[in-house]
Amino acid sequence: MWESIDRVIASRRDAMVSLLAELVRSPSVRYQEGPAQMIMAREFRRLGAELDVFEPKVEEIQHLPGYSPVETGYEGRPNVVGVIKGAGGGRSLVMNGHIDVVSAEPVENWTVNPWGGEVKEGRLYGRASCDMKSGLVAMVWAVDALRRSGIQLVGDLTLESVIEEECTGNGTLACRARGYLADAAVVCEPSGLTGALTSMGVQWARVKIKGSSSHAAWSDLGANAIEKAYVVIAALKELERRRNARGHELYRGMARPVFCNPGVIKGGDWPSTVAGNCTLEVRMGVLPGQTMAEARREFEDILHETVEQQKDAWLLKHPPVVEWVGFQAEGCVFDTSSEYARVLEASHRAVVGTPLKYKVSTGCNDMRFFSLYHGIPATMYGPAGTGAHSADESVDLASIETAARVYTRFIVDWCGVA
Ligand SMILES: [Zn+2]
Questions:
Q1: What is the DSSP string of 248-303?
Q2: What distance in angstroms lies between residue 224's CA and the mean position of ligand 1's atoms?
Q3: Residue 190 pLDDT grade (very low, low, confident, very high; cuts 50, 70, 90)
């Protein structure tokens, strides 16, 4: 049976590479996910799935654990879910992937068009070619092959193309809130054909610093908010140092699992004016086991301490203000002794021929919404690529086909064949 399914998969190579290129050419950056989601809806429909295209509603998810605060809604930015009903009675499965992508800036650092989907020497290039339109294509490829092979599953299979993985996770949260639960979930991120033992927690904060403007020729009269912003970066680096020193048993082999990154800085508006304001947006890694409330308090305390140590009269009187907007993602851990892990291991080994390796991750993904809040075992498994969130991102096309072959086995073994 597998030989003929693998032949079906191989026969669909050109179609699947075209689908990936089509998806890459639809730049689904935040707020512009709609057109790419219509491509996914078309594909899920083609697979015979019952389609549910819905915009998450903040009022329906904001009270739920795992929710991340946002300042805009989701109009025109749907999740796309496709359900393939099984014959009944078997174990159910969710396959999850995100359609949202980070920007391609700075575009001048690329040597290819970030939205071109160019293919060279077995790789497809472009923003999200790897993270993670490759995973969405592997998911479609696998289900397409099962369908063409006439396989009817016993358990239900739910396919999800979600928004907001790169900034809040609210897309996957909204799918759970809508009632799409299952006995297991695969997050089809490009993991390099490995499993994920962990997902790192991530918190975003916006830190506002008030200054006092004056003419730069009399800078002593003002308080430069850009200069004062050093205190926030110092606090961020101290937080990173402490979290890494504290560590976590699963991250023992890693010198620096936690990264705290000042990602955006905006301040002032004129070279000859002392900057009257400055805002930083930062990303902090949070080791599994620490709650969001604890992690927030830890940063606020360190920021407060750092301000005190500086003995800066202005900052003592006008301390930086922290706003928690975007990611409030707790870390989580996958149980590799579970039945799920056994089935994934067998599926991987049957295709790749080597034992399945697991990685501890310094990044976060949507695994947490399944395992932490619904007790649904979930790991991440998908194709191999390079350059996620950086220039010249690309994916190894052969690895998408390999992931699709592993998925077909996993789906059949997990859900059962009628
Ligand atoms: Zn991703």
A1: -GGGTT-S----EEEEEEEE-S-TTB---EEEEEEEEEE-TT--HHHHHHHHHHHH
A2: 38
A3: very high
